[in-house]
Specification:
The chain is mainly α and 464 residues long. The chain contains 18 helices and no strands.
């Protein structure tokens, strides 16, 4: 009795109890910090106080709230980086293209037309890459998606509440955008694109069969509703692409022949659409209520190409263009009909404008590396991660044709893309072993109804 009571009060026992409690608190605190940082990466809640004083509603201007949020996020992520130096350094060495693009972003301050903007936004880009890298090295695929889902749920529910209490701010009321929801985001397009990525995360978690399906379905419905209410055509097309791909994957898991058939049908329809776009672009765009000029984008692209010709190799500096009083912005706006130009509306042209052909080559290399890694995962130990990653790479690459979704700071699409590129790579994918009835292939054509487990064939994960 005496020995038992003494062991309970011994310093070793107290230290072990304290260590267990601290580990538990840290396991809750770390995801919470990353969720808050992800809200900053979405640019959610950051421009609400400035909407009524911005030169143009929806324009993403510098504001004190965003500067403070990015600064605090950098401090938090920098501290976490110091505690994970070795795995992050190993991850960087295996993702040379991602590291090269970040280096080019930082070096571009040397030739930037606005070095102050490049410095500030370059720091923001470092933050985005730190978040993507930390998610890749500290969490598995399911945990990453749950953390992303939590951040999307906050911004989605916040948008609905904001519409209810301040509709004059949360619903756009300018010109042709009247009635389009933007919620807690600076523009209706931002809401649509962020919620499209949220659709992707919920579909992943539903296919994985983890967590509470009712809650997941409720969030999925909310995200789809917000995409529709934002009237973002790109966000809607991205959501459709994610949903179709998830449906094919679900069929493939349960009946491979049906999955192959669905993939063939979707592929043929995509080929027909591409042929229509090539032969008569006005027809498919007319069916969705758009003009073949993509709401003035083609005229803008001609102006942007002229600016690219001035500095074709290294560009004008990362995020150094499109200031409100910038001569280039004023000229582009005048030549395109004064409809409020604030970007190239094409991610590839924007990268060429900022970082030149060198930057475009590195960006395309990142996407190509991701596709190669994702396809290898599809035939390896992480087929679900590979399938969804390849889907995201293709959809994100396509979205870059009409929106600024690639190679930017504080852009959730680019953050998730780079996270998936790192997650499918060597040294990380080995931790993504997937098991369970939805993720393994049965050797037997028929199952024993009385058997609780199935014999499965294990496929080795890629090592390079």
């Amino acid at each position: 009795m005496t020995s038992a009571s003494s062991s309970k009060t011994s310093p070793v026992g107290k230290f072990a109890h304290f260590d267990a409690v601290s580990n538990r608190l840290w396991s809750l605190l770390l995801p919470t910090i990353i969720v808050l940082v992800l809200l900053v990466q979405q640019y959610a809640f950051l421009q609400i106080p400035a909407i009524d004083v911005a030169p143009e509603p929806g324009r993403k201007e510098e504001n004190f709230g965003n500067t403070v949020a990015v600064g605090l996020s950098l401090m938090a992520m920098g501290s976490l980086w110091l505690w994970n130096v070795r795995p992050l350094v190993r991850l960087a060495s295996r993702n040379v293209a991602c590291l090269s693009y970040m280096a080019l972003v930082l070096v571009s301050v040397a030739w930037s037309v606005h070095p102050d903007l490049t410095i500030r936004r370059g720091a923001g880009y470092i933050l985005s890459m730190l978040v993507a890298a930390l998610l890749a090295v500290r969490f598995d695929a399911i945990e990453r998606m749950r953390i992303l889902s939590a951040s999307f749920a906050i911004s989605a529910i916040g948008s609905v509440i904001f519409v209810a209490i301040r509709p004059e701010w949360a619903i756009m009321n300018i010109d042709s955008l009247e009635g389009n929801w933007r919620g807690v985001f600076p523009h209706k397009t931002s809401l649509g694109l962020v919620m499209a990525v949220a659709v992707f995360t919920e579909l992943y978690l539903l296919i994985a069969g983890r967590g509470r399906p009712r809650w997941r379905f409720a969030l999925l419905g909310l995200y789809l509703a917000l995409v529709a209410l934002s009237h973002s055509a790109t966000g809607l097309l991205m959501s459709v692409g994610f949903a179709v791909s998830a449906g094919i994957h679900w069929l493939w898991i349960r009946h491979r022949v049906l999955g192959q058939g669905a993939l063939l049908v979707v592929g043929l329809n995509a080929l027909v659409l591409i042929c229509f776009l090539w032969i008569d672009p006005e027809l498919p765009f007319g069916l969705i209520g758009k003009d073949a000029g993509l709401t003035g984008r083609t005229e803008l692209w001609d102006v942007v190409l002229d600016s690219i010709d001035e500095r074709p190799l290294f560009g004008h500096g990362f995020q150094a263009m499109w200031g409100v009083d910038d001569a280039h912005t004023i000229r582009a706006n005048r030549l395109t009909g004064d409809w409020g130009v604030k970007g190239s509306h094409n991610a590839y042209l924007e990268v060429c404008l900022e970082l030149g052909l060198v930057g475009l080559f590195v960006l395309v290399s990142i996407i190509a590396a991701g596709l190669r890694r994702g396809l290898r995962c599809c035939s390896g130990q992480a087929p679900r991660l590979g399938w969804f990653s390849v889907t995201f790479f293709l959809v994100a690459a396509a979205s870059g044709l009409t929106e600024l979704t690639l190679g930017l700071n504080q852009d959730i699409i680019w953050l998730v893309l780079t996270m998936l590129v790192m997650s499918c790579g060597p040294g990380v994918v080995g931790r993504e072993a997937e098991a369970g009835p939805l993720l393994t292939r049965s050797i037997h054509k028929k199952r024993d109804p009385n058997a609780r487990h199935r014999t499965t064939r294990t496929i080795q994960a890629p090592t390079g």
